[in-house]
Amino acid sequence: MSEIKKIDYSSLYNLLLREVQSDVLQEVEPGLYTGIANFVSKLKSEGYDGIQSKVKDELIKIITDMTSLLLKARIEKAIKSANYDDANLLDEEKYILDSEAELHDRRELILSTALNGRIKLLESISKNHKTKPTVVRFLKSIDEIVGADSQTYGPFEAEDIGTIPYENAQTLISKKMATKVRWED
After folding, report:
1. Is 116 among the domain residues?
2. How many domains does the chain contain in total?
3. Cα–Cα distances in angstroms (integers) from residue 106 to residues 111, 171, 173, in the given order
4. What is the pLDDT, as a whole number, of residue 115?
5. Mean pLDDT estimate for the chain
6. pTM score, two decimals?
7. Which of 80, 113, 161, 169 is a plausible cystine mate for 134, CB 3.0–4.6 Å?
8. Contact (Cβ atoms closer than 8 angstroms) between residue 131 and residue 147
9. Dist. CA 62–CA 13, nearest whole Å
10. How far, in Å, CA of 51 to CA of 141, rounded?
């Protein structure tokens, strides 16, 4: 694993400036986002009082804004450019772009399926989406529920983690009774 380059306010500003002044995706050090996370974590862990605490909080806000702008600029360049250099993308950026490709594929599947009159496939896609397993953390206790897949789930106590169908999870999330838990492979 390569060594993570230390990030500070000035180096982050220079990276952002270089990125927004160019139409081409710039080469950046691997571990950039980890370096930023380390920098912010260190700042947050430093205990200050009074005006020093306000300065620290403002610095964290500025770093957050610069990082957001940098990431947005890099992703937008990659999306707009059909011939971007994949070598200049960081793994975290590739992770974001994978979801863009998935969005495109799903859009094309639905369009093609609808235009080719494949009703059964559309119904299958809809049913599979409604019932796909979704992991949630319950914010409130709930009684047993019947899922979109006609199976019974629960009861659940506050702070329990459970897997329920997507449609039910969305209902509970919108009612602030649960929150989605994201699991990564």
Report:
1. no
2. 2
3. 9, 23, 24
4. 95
5. 91
6. 0.70
7. 169
8. yes
9. 10
10. 43
> Rounded distance, CA 26 to CA 78, Å?
11
Per residue in 12-56, pLDDT (tens digit) is 999 999 999 998 899 999 999 999 999 999 999 998 889 999 999
pLDDT at 1 over 50: no
Number of Cβ within a 10 Å radius of residue 165 = 22
Examine the domain organization and report whether 85 and 24 are in the same domain: yes
* Domain around 145: 132-180
Q: Please, what is the end-to-end C-alpha distance for the chain in angstroms?
A: 20
CA dist 79 and 144 (Å) reads 44
As a residue count, the chain comes to 185
Query: What is the Cα–Cα distance from 159 to 8, expressed in whole angstroms?
Result: 38
Buried b (16+ CB within 10 A) or exposed e, 4-34: beebeeebbeebbeebeeeeebbebeebbbe
Domain co-membership, 14 together with 80 = yes
CA angle 77, 108, 166 (to 5 degrees): 95
Evaluate whether residue 138 is within a structural domain.
yes
